[in-house]
Design a protein that fits this description.
By secondary structure, this protein is α+β, with helices and mostly antiparallel strands. It starts with 18 loop residues before the first strand and ends in an 18-residue tail after the last helix. A 3-stranded antiparallel beta sheet has the order 1-3-2.
Length: 167
């Protein structure tokens, strides 16, 4: 029997995106983000969660690792991260956007823009704005794609990386 997780395992729909300085803090902010990061992070030595869920299909690939991930609360996962000295500091903004694009891939109504001074350089913060795509644009892929393509504002203040949306 194939087991799949719901998107809510990785995404808190009431999330407070705010201004984000680095991806370490961003992913440690709540359990949903941290779960995604741990499943995605194949560079963490001794990480039992890497690839336990296929992030494209949400299919559970390693039931034992998934059961452990499911059973641990946020505090316990944070302790594991601390005890093992895991970090994922690096391409901060790109890593955060990969997570946002993952959500957008699995929730057709989710849309986001990001803004940062000197985006993808030495900006202090990445500001994330999210919203739901209006229902009338969700009737087919062409309408949705057209909506997404037009979602950045004309002044160029917002950036949407259409190559990373995963669809």
């Amino acid at each position: 029997m194939t087991h799949k997780v719901e998107l809510d395992f990785f995404f808190n729909r009431e999330d407070d995106w705010g201004a984000n300085y680095n991806n370490q803090d961003f992913f440690q902010y709540n359990i949903e983000r941290l779960r995604w990061c741990l499943v995605e992070a194949d560079h963490l030595e001794g990480n039992p969660f890497t690839g336990c869920i296929d992030l494209n299909t949400l299919e559970v690939k390693d039931l034992k690792a998934f059961d452990l991930l499911y059973s641990l609360d946020h505090k316990e996962l944070m302790k594991m991260v601390e005890d093992k000295g895991w970090d994922w500091i690096g391409d901060d903004f790109e890593h955060m956007e990969a997570y946002l694009s993952f959500i957008m891939q699995h929730d057709r109504s989710f849309c986001y823009n990001v803004k940062g001074e000197g985006y993808k350089s030495d900006s202090d913060y990445l500001h994330i704005e999210t919203w739901s795509i209006p229902e009338k644009f969700l009737k087919n892929d062409d309408l949705r794609d057209a909506y997404i393509a037009g979602s950045s504002n004309e002044s160029g203040d917002y950036y949407v990386d259409s190559d990373s949306h995963g669809y």
